[in-house]
Recover the amino acids of this structure.
């Protein structure tokens, strides 16, 4: 029964990790870049929900209605300006630029809002849960995040496979030059992919702020979890990301079951084991990793 | 012309040094004497600043070797800074003089780095970067869970209490300075060796280098281990200079940020660049020391700007503009009309050719 509890809480946590990771996966899949400021974007989204949304006289539960569109726009703008400039140079520059951004954002938040942790106030919803049986309780919030995560991944999958823009995104991701020859403006497509990635990371940041509290330095750790999720699940597979998140969540809960200190370490070990025996991830295509 | 001589285009000269070697050596000797004498010449606060400066110089030089010359963007070098610091702590607890423990800490880091490369080299580019971070995170978590090292609360480095404060400060300064000197000289020799030649060929065209028989993976492995050892030395000196060791401090991501920004701003792919970057860092930090983390924000923003608009960094800009190098590792080809025999093949003297082609992407090459 204890193990069932570990698995249930791991799966719930995994939904959150998958939500966090799908933006990272999308940006890598389309633009072949790793946004090292991905985790910090989530933190900024959380801070926006805490400090900006109350100015609209909106309950904080609904903050995503404001924050997600802002972040989609921000994603497009950041891509078309800063990121595109560094992609034009080489992948190496992208890493340096996004890492620089990450450190700058973290320290700006520290200077402006201090190191105090903030959380998004959702009232009594935080503590409400239902009992599966006498030992296992599932909180409505975690369940909602898991459902949101599945819906977001499903919608992304549908968008990429059914719509014209989605097809263009896949085309650019497969072969940028060929897509360009067929009349696709790849910079615009990059912008759209980046907008989607930022929108999902904003959702993840808000979920994180509701779950627990966000501090300016939370970005780094969350980038690691998102990255581990992507690698475990397999690069380029959205459903793989969901499974990867769940496996990471279960591994972490398994570690935490023995000792609170081992939670993150157990996840890292799973990541390193997957890397050692199956570097392309569980559901990854046999693709080149650059 | 006999058959065993190399045919040379008589209209060009190929030289390595621009300023006479004797001047470079004399300059190096003067600087060495000055910095070795510095504790007796300068006020104590200056000595402390210079000590921290040299620790950062070690880190930045090692990061430059990794990223600037071997193309491996690691954001997990704090792993080896932490491991170097904690190895020193281990030997000190066992009764060893912490200063004697520095070379042992270096060996420990090199030994740990070797198996790590087999995991890391399965990944390239950005995935390599984040994986180095995962390694650093795991190392911090493992060391942090060992009660012998004080766990999460921290541990004092024993073995330093018998030394007078002023004497101790001098000793730590000299340790930092000598390690920095060794690291810079070793890097210079390494880059002028056959290994440096392989690195330049890989950077310019990896496929061509591989097909010409360059042992790319083992060269990268050597560089990674050297960089780990160097960061281990920096960590060991750091542990002695700040003898209360805490996981959060020794394994801080900020070390990775500082070494990255300093070499980026100064100029990747040059030996002088990272040192210049460290000077800029310390000028900024000392000027803005009353304004919290703003120095780091400005330094980071500067690094982002340099990466986008001036990717060769400040020293690279000076070199390209004035064709001037203090510590050349390549050769210069000039159309002077002076005839000279060339002992070996000439190579492109511009060590950092960027913006053009990027190295080809490949799958796992951990052989």
């Amino acid at each position: 029964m204890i193990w069932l509890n570990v698995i249930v809480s791991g799966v719930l946590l995994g939904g959150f990790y998958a939500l966090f990771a799908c933006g990272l996966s999308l940006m890598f899949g389309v633009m072949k870049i790793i946004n090292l400021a991905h985790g910090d974007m989530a933190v900024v989204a959380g801070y926006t929900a805490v400090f900006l949304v109350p100015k609209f006289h909106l309950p904080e539960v609904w903050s995503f209605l404001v924050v997600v569109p802002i972040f989609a726009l921000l994603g497009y703008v950041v891509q078309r300006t800063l990121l595109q400039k560094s992609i034009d140079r080489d992948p190496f520059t992208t890493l340096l630029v996004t890492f620089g951004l990450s450190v700058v954002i973290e320290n700006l938040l520290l200077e402006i809002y201090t190191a105090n942790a903030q959380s998004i106030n959702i009232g009594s919803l935080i503590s409400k849960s239902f009992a599966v049986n006498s030992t296992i309780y599932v909180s409505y919030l975690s369940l909602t995040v898991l459902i949101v995560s599945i819906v977001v991944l499903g919608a992304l999958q549908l968008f990429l496979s059914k719509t014209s823009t989605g097809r263009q995104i896949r085309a650019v991701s497969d072969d940028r030059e060929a897509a360009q020859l067929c009349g696709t403006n790849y910079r615009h497509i990059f912008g759209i992919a980046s907008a989607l990635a930022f929108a999902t990371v904003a959702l993840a940041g808000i979920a994180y702020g509701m779950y627990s509290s966000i501090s300016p330095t939370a970005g780094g750790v969350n980038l690691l979890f998102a990255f581990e999720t992507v690698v475990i699940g397999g690069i380029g597979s959205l459903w793989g990301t969901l499974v990867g998140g769940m496996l990471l969540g279960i591994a972490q809960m398994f570690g935490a079951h023995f000792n609170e200190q081992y939670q993150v370490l157990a996840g890292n070990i799973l990541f390193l084991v997957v890397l050692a025996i199956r570097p392309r991830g569980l559901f990854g295509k046999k693709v080149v990793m650059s | 012309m006999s058959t065993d001589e190399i045919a040379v285009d008589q209209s060009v000269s190929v030289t390595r040094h621009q300023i006479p070697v004797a001047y470079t050596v004399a300059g190096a000797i003067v600087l060495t004497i000055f910095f070795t004498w510095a504790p007796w010449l300068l006020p104590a606060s200056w000595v402390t600043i210079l000590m921290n400066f040299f620790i950062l110089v070690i880190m930045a030089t090692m990061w430059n070797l990794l990223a600037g010359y071997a193309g491996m963007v690691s954001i997990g070098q704090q792993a080896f800074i932490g491991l170097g610091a904690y190895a020193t702590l281990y030997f000190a607890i066992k009764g060893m003089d912490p200063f004697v423990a520095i070379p042992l800490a270096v060996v420990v880091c090199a030994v740990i780095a070797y198996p790590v490369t087999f995991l890391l080299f399965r990944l390239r580019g950005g995935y390599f970067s984040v994986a180095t971070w995962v390694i650093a995170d795991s190392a911090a978590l493992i060391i942090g869970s060992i009660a012998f090292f004080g766990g999460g609360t921290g541990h004092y480095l024993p073995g330093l209490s018998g030394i007078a404060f002023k004497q101790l400060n001098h000793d730590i300064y000299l340790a930092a300075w000598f390690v920095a000197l060794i690291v810079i000289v070793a890097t210079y020799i390494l880059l002028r060796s056959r290994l440096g030649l392989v690195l330049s060929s890989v950077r310019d065209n990896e496929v061509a280098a591989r097909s010409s028989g360059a042992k790319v993976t083992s060269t990268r492995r050597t560089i990674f281990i050297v960089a780990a050892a160097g960061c281990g030395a920096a960590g060991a000196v750091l542990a002695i200079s700040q003898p209360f060791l805490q996981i959060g401090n020794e394994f801080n991501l900020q070390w990775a940020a500082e070494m990255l920004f300093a070499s980026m701003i100064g100029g990747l792919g040059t030996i002088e660049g990272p040192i210049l970057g460290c000077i800029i860092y310390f000028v900024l930090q000392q000027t803005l020391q009353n304004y919290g983390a703003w120095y780091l924000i400005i330094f980071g923003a500067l690094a982002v700007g340099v990466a986008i608009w001036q990717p060769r960094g400040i020293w690279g800009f000076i070199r390209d503009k004035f064709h001037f190098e203090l510590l050349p590792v390549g050769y210069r080809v000039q159309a002077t009309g002076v005839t000279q025999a060339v002992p070996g093949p000439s190579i492109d003297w511009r060590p950092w050719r960027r913006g053009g082609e990027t190295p080809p992407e490949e799958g796992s090459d951990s052989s």
